Amino acid sequence: MNVLDIKNLTVEFPGRKSVFVAVDDVDMSVEAGKILGVVGESGAGKSTVGNAVIGLLQEPGHIAGGEIFLHGKRIDQLPYKDKRLLRGRKIGMIFQDPLTSLDPLQTVESQLVETIRTHMPFSGNEARKRAVELIDAVGIPDPEERIKQYPHQFSGGMRQRVVIALALCAEPELVIADEPTTALDVSIQAQILELMKKLCEERNVAMLVITHDMGVIADITDHVAVMYHGELVEYGETTQVLGAPKHPYTQSLISAVPRPDIRVERFPVVNYIEKAGTPQKQIDISTHWLGKSRDYEKVEGPLVQIRGLDMRFETRGSIFPSRRKYFQAVKKVSFDIQEGETFGLVGESGSGKSTIARLVTGLYQPSGGSILFGKTELTSLKNRKDVLAMRRQMQMIFQDPYSSLNARMRVRDIIAEPIKFHKLASGNSEVRQIVDDLLDHVGLGVAAGQKFPHEFSGGQRQRISIARALATRPRFLICDEPTSALDVSIQAQILNLLKDLQEELGLTMLFISHDLAVIRQMCNRIGVMRHGELCEVSGCDQLFEAPQHAYTRELLELMPSMELLSRANLESA
Amino acid sequence: MPYVSNEDAKVDEQTAPGRLTKILDSDMFHSFLRSKVTVVAACGTLFLFLLALLAPWVAPHNPFDLASISIMDARVPPVWMEYSDPRFLLGTDDQGRDLLSGIFYGMRISLIVGFCSVAAAAVLGITLGLVAGYMGGRVDAVIMRIADVQLTFPAILIALLIDGIAAGVFGSIDREIFAFYILIVSLSLSFWVQYARTVRGSTMVEKNKEYVQAARVIGIPSAIIMARHILPNVMGPVMVIATINLALAIVTEATLSFLGVGMPPTQPSLGTLIAIGNDFLYSGEWWIAIFPGLALALLVLNVNLLGDWLRDALNPKLR
Question: Would the pTM of this model clear 0.90, i.e. be above it?
Answer without folding.
Answer: no
